[in-house]
From TrEMBL:
It comes from Klebsiella variicola. It comes from the Bacteria. The keyword NADP does not apply. SUPFAM superfamilies: Enzyme IIa from lactose specific PTS, IIa-lac. Pfam families: PTS_IIA. One of its GO terms (molecular function) is transferase activity. This is PTS N N'-diacetylchitobiose transporter subunit IIA.
Length: 31
């Protein structure tokens, strides 16, 4: 259960990082 939770947390943080990178890229295009 703990392993699954850790894996899920890792996936979530990876997705969040990609989302942030996309937002930064979009923000730079706008300016």
């Amino acid at each position: 259960l703990v392993l699954v939770h850790a894996q899920d947390h890792l996936m979530t943080s990876m997705l969040a990082r990609e989302l942030v990178a996309e937002l930064i890229e979009l923000h730079e295009k706008v300016q």
